[in-house]
Queue: 2 jobs
Job 1
Amino acid sequence: MTDESTVLIFDTTLRDGEQAAGATMTVEQKVEIAHQLDRLGVDIIEAGFPISSPGELASVQRIATEVTRPIICALCHANNAAVDAARDSLKDAARPRIHVFLSTSEIHLLHQLRKDREEVLNLACENVARARGYCEDVEFSPMDATRSDPDYVHRLLEATIDAGASTVNIPDTVGYTTPEEFYQLIRGIVENVRNIHKARISVHCHNDLGMAVANSLAAVRAGARQIECTINGIGERAGNASLEEIVMALRTRVDTYELTTNVDSTQLIRASRLVSEHTGFAVQPNKAIVGKNAFRHASGIHQDGILKERTTYEIMDPASVGLAGTSLVLGKLSGRHAFRKRLEELGYQLTDDELARAFESFKEVAEKKKELSDLDLEALVADERRVISEAFSLDHMQVTCGNHETPTATVRLLDADGNPRQESATGAGPVDAVFKAIDRIVGVPACLEEFAVQSITEGIDAIGEVMVRVESDGMTYVGRGAATDIIVASGKAYVNALNRLIANRDLPQASPAEKVGP
Ligand code: KIV
Ligand code: ZN
């Protein structure tokens, strides 16, 4: 449904979200997220920035072919080659949109573009018109709009709407604005741009001062009807406005905003976990809506209130974001049928092969851990999925360590063809020894930057999840692994990170000139 009381949700997790340092995803992972965004009901998916590399173009193309309900958008600079790459990536899209951007602030014009205002205006119009020649749905963004001269932004918007833009997006590129100021900026556009009735106003807020969501909501009060945002708020630097917060704020405070979205909020948790899994970015426990603690009540008074009447301390029903409670707990006596059924209820559609592997791990863990919660099951499935189509997988590991021992690890990995490769190493500790043995097998230069362990649930037998971040050639790669033994989980996480590194290294790379991103 689209009318003046609906705010369109433009998801840019796969474009701006992926720009977050270390968030590189494979094409398969992006396609899986795009399908989840479709289930979530977002109106527009910004699938990528096709000029940046042939791999990126192919990834947008694949999403555009497979995901047909939402509008699929491709981003481009205001130059002919970039617009043409966006067109090529969308050639099979059922509902294509080309998104052209160009900086408008004096700082960017002077130091980055080295062009004057008239040149920028002409370039913007020329490329919007070019995009419009390829597709009816064209969006234009004056980058760094919140630090630009408002009169110039008005003039530019008027000209780009005349050139064919049907959406004009106002980015707070550096997360500088405040809700009051942004409200005034959007009101100024509504009141001063002659032909604004021919376009939808969109906003795109970054979170450098922690105000991206507040700024976006101020903008809809001023007349914006599209919000650009990302799952878990990931994105360049401090990230973008968080989709789940925007959607639930509009829904919970409908008394204030009197606006709606087309999003099915019960899919939010699933989307959040999928993005966290594929980017390797853990969601902080206190994150609004999707954090582990967002619906947990620790204080006695609060628990007492909740037991008497949920609304005493809960402004949202956990079920409304997809946190359905379950009394079904799986354990070692549970069969494949119950396992599959629970996973389906959690929203997982596994292939037979994936199910067989996940069930095998489930049985292994259930031998050590009496009961497995939904969080445990999700960690197991995620772990199994990481193994599919990767260059190396962990087959066997043996470690000795102790206060009078030199930590020593023997690790056997299987390569993509299933051939075993084994090495041993000693290290400062058991994890160090495991990583060194893996390095000997994989043989790619990588430097460990971060290592973190967390338990998925409570208890001494909890599944441990390890996150590692490695650096190679100026790029960072995140890997994750889960197991009841944290040394095994560490080995899996390290192999996962190296697999990402190898996958990225094998992708066709952009030329330096093309690589300049938004
Ligand atoms: O932050 C920004 O300005 C952008 C534009 C490309 C919309 O991401
Ligand atoms: Zn951005």
Note: Confidence is low (pLDDT under 50) at residues 510-515.
Job 2
Amino acid sequence: MSRLAEARVIVTCPGRNFVTLKLTTEDGLTGLGDATLNGRELAVAAYLTEHVCPLLIGRDAGAIEDTWRYLYNGAYWRRGPVTMSAIAAVDTALWDIKGKAAEMPVYELLGGRCRAGVTVYGHASGATVDRLLEAVGRYVELGYRAVRVQCGVPGLAAAYGVGRGELFYEPAEGGARPREELWSTAAYLSTVDEVLGAVRERFGPELELLHDAHHRLTPIEAARLGKTVERHRLFWLEDPTPAELQSTLRTIRAHTTTPLAVGEVFNSIWDCEQLIREQLIDFIRMSVAHSGGITHLRRVLHLAELHRVRSGFHGATDLSPVCLAAALHLDLAIPNFGLQEYMHHTPETDAVFPHSYAFRDGMLHPGEEPGLGVILDEDLAARHPYEPALLPVARLADGTMHDW
Ligand code: KDG
Ligand code: MG
């Protein structure tokens, strides 16, 4: 294949910040990769601009695996969200170019489709149970077969996952310092079982329900929660504990058959190798953009397939349409697909990133465009300059910092 002639980083804020790498070959093919790391966008932009882009010029655009190893093994300093997001952007853009060169959608290059479409879940939330039930009802009307449910907690001004928008949840906010939220595990645990029960009762046994505890529980609290909510038959309970301490999952697992999903903050196969090998989780939630791209995430899913662990790729709004498209191509081609997260982007974001993927009957379809099927409108992007925004932090009532 031809050689890379240009590598550029584009930072834009159409409603929220996105970092995109655009690669161009000597014969004019272009590829896009998402390098957005929520609240730390400029760190990845600088890593790419200062340390990665200069290395790419003149390289064979077709040498995807070799370029991955050149950037990962070659840097000596390995892993971490900044490095792996930068490598992911290069890798994703190279797959996009290869698809365009072959005049095929990327999923064809990955082995071809294993299913008709990619079943997705949406984010329903409400400050009260009644509001939550209304929100779930809206998703059901739209055709969703799976919904994540998050509810306000009496006594807490803000609960994780309770959104300001209708179809998306956007926790990052502008300001020099992160917003501080009050957290109480006791208050949360005293309501969550009732909330999930109300949704199951109203919508019946067919709708798949998910819930995200967002890393806030101790192992034994998580074990108790998993056991208590078993009767509501969750599709998954997400991030019950901070999952970098992998043995906590062993404790939870010993007490409950509620399926467990973790991994949205992971960035390499080494973050989940033990969890997969010991079958301590049911779904792996890494994203293309934070986990070294399509090449590395595919490797994780091949390992997972051996151990009957399925995918549940992260698809929050802080991952751009380029990342979502890349996830959809991989979702279609892996044997062990589970479910794909889908939070709608704002109309401003969709205008900057026109795309071929489309929602029909509870599924996303990546489309048949060569490559990933996403364009970046650079003129429009330039009209939305970067705006600093940060994720909140959480404290207990006595001021102790807690995992957000
Ligand atoms: O940037 C943080 C978000 O991506 C995260 O809070 C979203 O937990 C999340 C989810 O499950 O989508
Ligand atoms: Mg989550």
Note: The radius of gyration is 20 Å.
